[in-house]
UniProtKB/TrEMBL annotation:
Entry's transmembrane regions: 1495-1512
Biased amino acid composition, Acidic residues: 1400-1409
Domain of life the protein comes from: Archaea
Protein name (Swiss-Prot/TrEMBL): CobN-like chelatase BtuS for metalloporphyrine salvage
């Protein structure tokens, strides 16, 4: 990086040049003297009466502050008040009286005042006219009017009346966070303290000094406070309160401190406003700060011997330019006149050229103005016009950005995070977030991973509320060597990058659609043909819809090249996927299509050489020299990096985002720190950036399509990136548009802050009730039959047996005392049946996503009513059921209103038989929700707006079921102010949830847990606003302290109030939580220390910390203070700048480990980095293990109706990984594991992980309704089914006892043994089916599922047959898993299978004789011989994918006829490929039964029965 050098701008020289400007400004903008804001008590100085013409005069007036009052009373009172200041010169003051709002008694009291009797010894004359105001006309003279000259007498804080001119000594202090005021305050301190005649002592303190030092101001007479953070204010609170007790005047400008202002209540705000006017102009003119001090001394302490002037102010809003005389003007016309005709050789305004606006604060001038000057200079050097402004709430700067209806600006760089002072939506141009780092110098910024303090995140958070994008820190804070004060100085390369990005956004709005080059990037994480997709978005039809819309808008899409959905999917599968190093044959096939980009090694090396040296070395250290091994193809002319793509027009292409490379290299897979991108990843993004002439694509914009990609998660700063961080290097200056699911707010924020993206959020799929099916429906019917069989005892007994048997077969018996239910009829009817009905109702009402969303669509018909019903909640159904108890009555009511055109009244009469106000209110909300959902049809249009460089307005993100205000979609979603976490509501709920955790644990174990581990995610906290944080605090016996709605501190809960032990905690945070909620990390760290400090008992925090401290000290290298500091660390996560646990890819690569001890080791090595006030991201592995040892319970949360525990890998990698790690350090003992279930507002509860996961499998993956919804999405829907099985394997790998054999059997029965569903999957996504069967087989191979030989043979035949018929999927766990493929070869013999695998991998499957399958499903001997584990060296573990071209050819272009299948080494085999697979019924409550008599069915049921008998017993890995 370049060293900081800036010799062109000397801020001090610029300050010295302000003199002339200030004089001009004083003449232009000085305000009329304002009236004194106090009216405590008056002394009459002189009085007179105006003559017949209204003329009055006072002579001999001394210097000082006075109030002139004109009083006239004939038919009614008229009055005028004017404040004046005499400074040796004569004054002319006209007094214009009015009859409005006159206090007659107060006016008469003024007339009754008596003078002091002293002679007037001054030299000034005050004269003027008394006049009467006229409506719509000039005032007219009002003769014979009484005129009073008054002087105030002010009451001191100690209730003593002090006459004007008292010379009491005052100690006055100013405390502030305004860096711009430091030098003026320093100068003022020298001026006042060197002038003994003032009888004042003045001091000032900057916020960071107060934070780091003990400052005692309790003896001050006056303390003025302006702009402090909540934490600094909190530190000052005791001292300020003590000062107030001592009689100090304390004036606090909205920093949450207590005040003491000796003025009437109704005058305090106007007084504060006057002081603020001085303050805001204090950096501009130092005399304002002097007058502020004198004003407080005079008006609050009676020091009227200190006359003060009115503020010397800049305009309330103005345009600034560094080269304009006087720097500021409040007239757009004047500015453009100067700018268009300037003659100093600078840039001349040209309306035909693009214009960039800059918004800043008035206080930037003069000490923070250099970054603005740097921007102006560089923008003008690039031939851009600039309008730099500041404004106010009452006078917005946005008025300068328009002339009439014409918008003058093409983009805005905004530095104003506390309100942007312009209407961005009206201007409809991109708003870029420029940031001045007031807290670090350049060197510190460059070295820091989190370049803003935790309590200063509003510079990012609040800007996002206004829709600002692309946060770029472009200036830091340096110490001026001459003045030793801090000034803002731009960072040259950041200024260039910021302007580069602004320029790209502006150009995006100027380039015609027909010439605009757009790269649309979709996801194929890990490679393979089975998993093209995005989170709850059907990618192929969504892409097709976007392409159609782009064609309509004039983008260069050739009809011959624009494919339909089927063609598009086929193209993506043949030339648009990533191929792992394990499948060089597949890479050869892709190259043979002639449709991919072959980037020459020499071109890439040239581009690579331009990267910063440090970044290049990171890549070489991890991936070797360019071009590496991933996606590299070679022929006689050299090596080429392969870039898959689909051209859909001259300027538009589709391409998969490159894989991250974890699965391509075992060293990368088990890497315990951040992983740089590999060569092909870098080549892809550099190819997009470079022009066609340079060998690239020359993209004007990128569209990252759906949640979520990997570019925003590359190593680098947590936020406030430099242009040399990896995410920035991959983008350069390219604008990014990012369609993103609206309930992905946490991770979506990372795309905004680290991925340079403008979000266009899209709807979730319809969230509907799961309903009832199968034996659950049969059980509900059996209960109903029992209740209706009152007259027939025999029939009733039969139904009772049916209910009991179905309860047992569905494994619902754990909820009840089955012995009592069988033998006690009263218990059966009053307890058992009622509880069972509640449980079944809960299952039925469980929410589930119905299919996937397609971009630019909205739910219709039944899906619309189901979604709106979910949004209305259970209260709506309860309201309807009061009038109509028919199941689904509320859905019919909604259908009438939303789909059939009935009005609310008509629908209610039809369904309820009457009208009801409550139901009517619900129906009004339903219509509003439906209208907002319908706006989902504008999502594609919003993407096109973003591609035109237009403004995308912000909106709340989140789950629209829990928060309907998240609608409509198509917006640039934002989170909320992190300072409010936990909210008061979250604290209340969190206490309740923590109590439920403890109650559940005590019920099971009889004692309180001593240590509980929590997982905190940013996305969850954003939804529930701090319920989990509240749980943690309450377990510790600590509570939040709020001020003005913000959490500013924590305080202990007394033991007598708590009523139980203080529970110790361990907190596992995600990398995203660390980035988004650093303030909460510090707050929780403080809470742990506070809990430890309580000497009450039992205090498990203190007990555990003391034990850990003793252990650390026993090692001999630490003293007690150091050991205690470490012993109190409780918050751990990934390394600073890194994300995730590393488990998902390692678990997927199940051939690389034999025991899940390797997974525990990986988790411990990745997540052992400590966070807190004194440490941030330090690797403390041993301390982490010590903390985890003895954890008795773990808690995670779910507050989204979209995401569950089995539809993504996040839940098992965090909670599953944590449980596994605890087991690993605790002798194999797993903790109890709980979920704080917040899916339904008002029905929050704590459940065991097993309960939550079981209910999710009921509502979704085994539910015909869920399957039906996914079938509507074809290829993508089948992919969701495959994802479920893959994530189930993730839980199996981390928490083996959680997933029973019966669960795997149910998976087999649902997806493979059902001929209709299995055939549907094969037809719509054969590669997903191949992946599903492979994972099932791998689960058995590793000994985690004891499947029968027949089931395994059937799975193996399906898998091998699919490989031959459909081609290899070639994800890592299929053709990349040689152990699995040898295992399959040992189960069945399918002609062509071995050849297909060997062709793809270019490796032989016959290297060793495969071991025959055992019915126990465990095959360790072969694995022990062949497995490559995480401990192998890079040379041993890294695959080499470089493919050399030859003439031998690879593969078959079209599928062969279905081959015959032979069972290997089994004389009694059944031809698996032709085998008719039947679904086998589960064991029911009446004993064993079979669905058929064939031998396969019989054996399968026997195996299933054995699994049920064994219950939850599992083989540990």
């Amino acid at each position: 990086m370049k060293e900081w050098v800036n010799n062109e701008i000397d801020p001090l020289n610029k300050i010295k040049a302000f003199g002339l400007a200030i004089l001009i400004l004083l003449m232009l903008f000085s305000a009329t003297p304002a009236a004194c804001s106090t009216d405590i008590q008056y002394e009459l100085v002189a009085n007179t009466t105006s003559d017949a013409e209204g003329y009055y005069v006072f002579s001999g007036i001394p210097d000082g502050n006075y109030t002139l009052v004109a009083l006239y009373n004939e038919d009614k009172w008229r009055r005028a008040d004017e404040q004046v200041r005499v400074l040796g010169a004569d004054l002319s003051v006209n007094l214009d009286t009015s009859s409005m709002d006159i206090d007659a008694n107060g006016s008469q009291a003024l007339l009754d005042l008596e003078g002091s009797g002293g002679d007037l010894t001054g030299s000034a004359v005050i004269s003027g006219l008394t006049r009467q105001k006229q409506m719509n006309a000039d005032p007219v003279p009002l003769g014979f009017t009484d005129v009073l000259l008054l002087r105030e007498v002010v009451k001191e804080a100690k209730d003593t009346l002090v006459a004007s001119g008292s010379g009491q000594h005052l100690d006055i202090a100013v405390v502030t966070g305004y860096r711009s005021h430091e030098l003026p305050l320093k100068n003022l301190m020298e001026e006042i303290n060197n002038n003994s005649s003032l009888n004042l002592t003045f001091s000032y303190f900057m916020a960071d000094y107060v934070t780091g030092n003990d400052v005692d101001l309790s003896g001050m007479d006056v303390i003025y406070i302006n702009m402090l953070s909540a934490s600094t204010a909190l530190k000052l609170t005791p001292m300020v309160d003590s000062a107030i007790t001592n009689g100090c005047v304390v004036i606090d400008d909205d920093t949450l401190l207590n005040e003491s202002i000796p003025l009437p209540e109704d005058q305090i705000e106007s007084f504060r406003e006057k002081l603020n006017n001085y303050w805001l102009n204090g950096a501009y003119d130092q005399s304002n700060l002097k007058n502020l001090v004198f004003c407080i001394a005079s008006d609050c302490c009676g020091r009227t011997d200190l006359p003060y002037e009115d503020p010397h102010t800049l305009p309330e809003r103005a345009i600034y330019h560094t080269d304009m005389t006087g720097y500021f003007t409040d007239s757009l016309d004047d500015y453009l006149a100067w700018y268009s005709n300037r003659s100093d050789g600078g840039h001349v305004y040209d309306p035909a050229k693009p214009t960039v606006a800059i918004t800043m604060y008035q206080s930037y001038f003069p000490f923070q103005i250099e970054p603005i000057d740097a921007l102006i200079s560089e923008l003008e050097a690039r031939d851009y016009n600039v309008i730099a402004t500041y404004g106010a709430d009452s006078l917005p700067s946005g008025d300068f950005f328009k002339q009439g209806d014409e918008v003058l600006v093409d983009a805005i760089i905004s530095f104003t995070y506390f309100g942007n002072k312009f209407d961005a939506e009206e201007l409809d141009v991109p708003v870029i977030n420029g940031i001045v780092n007031n807290y670090m110098n350049r060197t510190e910024y460059e070295a820091s991973s989190r370049p803003l303090p935790a309590d200063k995140m509003m510079k990012i958070d609040l800007q996002e509320l206004w829709g600002a994008i692309d946060p770029v820190i472009m200036a830091a804070t340096e110490v001026d060597p001459e003045t030793e004060t801090e000034i803002s100085v731009s960072i040259d390369y950041q200024v260039d990058w910021l302007i580069d990005r602004v320029e790209s956004w502006v150009e995006l709005g100027e380039i015609p659609e027909s010439e605009k080059k757009v790269a649309i990037i979709y996801y194929n994480h890990g490679g393979g043909k089975d998993n093209i997709g995005a989170s709850y978005l059907d990618v192929v039809p969504s892409l097709s819809g976007l392409l159609d819309a782009m064609a309509s808008e004039g983008y260069a899409l050739n009809e011959s090249q624009a494919p339909n959905e089927t063609e598009l999917l086929n193209l993506m599968l043949t030339q648009g996927i990533n191929i792992g190093t394990w499948a060089p044959g597949e890479l050869e096939k892709m190259v043979d299509t002639g449709k991919v980009v072959l980037l020459p090694e020499s071109t890439y090396e040239e581009w690579f050489s331009e990267l910063p040296e440090e970044r290049k070395q990171e890549v070489i250290d991890q991936w070797g020299p360019a071009p590496g091994e991933i996606m590299v193809w070679e022929n006689e002319s050299g090596k080429y990096l392969v870039i898959p793509r689909i051209e859909v027009g001259e300027n538009v292409l589709l391409a998969p985002q490159p894989s991250r490379g974890w699965l391509d290299d075992n060293e990368a897979l088990y890497h315990d720190s951040e992983l740089p991108p590999h060569h092909q990843y870098i080549a892809f993004y550099l190819w997009l950036q470079h022009s066609e002439e340079e060998g690239g694509f020359g993209s004007d914009a990128l569209v990252h399509f759906g949640r979520h990609g990997t570019q925003e998660w590359l190593p680098g700063k947590e936020f406030g990136l430099t242009r040399y961080d990896w995410p920035s290097l991959m983008l350069g200056d390219l604008p990014v548009i990012y369609p993103y699911v609206m309930d992905g707010l946490g991770e979506g924020n990372e795309a905004k802050r680290r991925g340079g993206a403008v979000i266009v959020d899209h709807l979730v799929p319809p969230i509907v009730s799961a309903g009832s099916y199968g034996d659950y429906a049969n059980l509900s019917e059996a209960i109903l039959n029992y209740e209706q069989a009152e007259a027939d005892a025999t029939l009733k007994a039969a139904h009772r047996s049916e209910v009991l048997n179905l309860t047992l077969s569905l494994s619902l018996d754990d909820e009840f005392n089955m012995t009592e239910a069988e033998n006690n009829e009263t218990y059966f009817e009053n307890v058992f049946l009622e509880g069972l009905k509640e449980l079944l109702d809960e299952y039925k009402s469980q929410s589930m996503p119905y299919g996937l969303h397609i971009l630019g669509t909205s739910p219709k018909g039944e899906q619309l009513t189901g979604m709106v019903n979910s949004m209305l909640g259970t209260d709506f159904a309860d309201s309807v059921n009061e009038f109509n108890e028919t199941e689904g009555a509320q859905l019919y009511l909604l259908d009438l209103v939303l789909n059939r055109g009935a009005n609310s009244s008509e629908a209610q009469i039809e369904v309820l038989g009457t009208e009801n106000e409550t139901v009517g209110t619900f129906l009004s909300s339903a219509e509003e929700y439906a209208a907002n959902l319908a706006l989902g049809e504008e999502e594609i249009q919003q993407v096109l707006y973003a591609l035109d460089g237009r403004f995308i307005p912000g909106n709340q993100g989140g789950d629209p079921v829990r928060n309907p205000e998240a609608l409509p979609s198509g917006r640039n979603f934002y989170a909320f102010d992190q300072r409010i976490v936990p909210t008061a509501a979250a604290w209340t709920l969190g206490q309740e949830m923590a109590d439920q955790v403890l109650e559940a644990y005590v019920a099971e174990h009889g004692t309180y847990p001593k240590k509980v581990a929590y997982i905190l995610w940013a996305g969850e906290t954003t939804r529930h606003e701090g319920v989990m944080e509240a749980e943690i605090l309450y377990l510790l016996g600590v509570k939040p302290v709020w001020k003005s709605g913000r959490v500013v501190d924590v305080e202990e809960i007394p033991m007598e109030t708590l009523g139980r032990p203080r529970i110790d905690v361990v907190i596992q945070i995600s990398g995203l939580y660390r980035d988004m909620y650093p303030g909460k990390v510090l707050l929780l760290d403080k809470a742990v220390k506070l809990a430890y400090a309580q000497e009450d008992s039992p205090n498990y925090v203190r007990e555990n910390a003391e034990a850990l401290k003793a252990s650390l000290m026993s090692e001999g290298s630490l003293n007690e203070t150091e050991a205690l500091g470490l012993a109190l660390l409780r918050i751990f996560g990934a390394a600073d700048g890194d994300y995730g646990t590393g488990l998902p890819n390692a678990i997927a690569a199940s051939d690389t480990w034999e025991s899940n001890d390797a997974l525990a080791e990986l988790y411990l090595s990745k997540m052992c980095n400590a966070y807190g006030e004194d440490v941030w991201g330090e690797n403390l592995r041993e301390l982490f293990e010590n903390n985890l040892e003895g954890v008795e319970a773990t808690v995670h949360s779910r507050s989204t109706n979209l995401y569950g525990t089995l539809d993504n890998d996040d839940f098992f990698q965090y909670l599953g990984g944590l449980n596994l790690a605890i087991s690993s350090v605790s002798g194999g003992k797993y903790p109890d594991s709980f979920i704080t279930n917040m899916l339904t507002g008002g029905d929050e509860k704590v459940e065991t992980l097993e309960e939550f996961l079981t209910r999710e499998t009921y509502s979704r993956y085994f539910n015909p309704k869920w399957i039906e919804g996914m079938q509507r999405n074809g290829y993508a829907g089948a992919g969701e089914m495959a994802d479920f099985i893959e994530n189930l394997w993730g839980w199996e790998a981390t928490n083996p006892d959680l997933i029973s054999d019966d669960m795997w059997n149910q998976v087999y029965r649902t997806y493979m043994a059902d001929p209709e569903l299995s055939e549907w999957i094969k037809q719509n996504n054969p590669y997903a089916y191949q992946s599903m069967t492979a994972r099932m087989l791998e689960t058995a191979r590793k000994g985690n599922w004891e499947a029968s030989d027949e089931v395994l043979a059937s799975l193996a035949a399906d898998y091998a047959g699919s490989v031959v018929e459909d081609g290899v999927t070639c994800c890592h766990h299929t053709c990349g898993n040689s152990l699995l493929n040898r295992y399959v070869s040992g189960l069945v013999s399918v002609p062509g299978f071995t050849e297909a695998i060997e062709e793809a991998t270019q490796e032989s499957l016959e290297q060793e004789e495969p071991e025959k399958h055992s019915s126990k499903g465990h095959q360790t001997s072969v694995a022990e011989k062949l497995n490559q584990t995480a401990k192998s060296s890079p040379e041993e573990s890294a695959s080499n994918q470089t493919v050399q071209n030859s003439d031998s050819g690879y593969g078959v272009d079209s599928p062969e006829p279905a081959p015959e299948v032979q069972m290997a080494d089994n004389p009694d085999y059944v031809e698996g490929y032709e085998m008719q697979k039947e679904a086998v019924e589960n064991e029911d409550g009446g004993g064993m039964s079979f669905s058929g008599a064939d031998i396969f069915g019989t054996l399968f049921v026997v195996a299933a029965a054995g699994g049920i008998y064994l219950g939850m017993r599992k083989k540990k890995m």
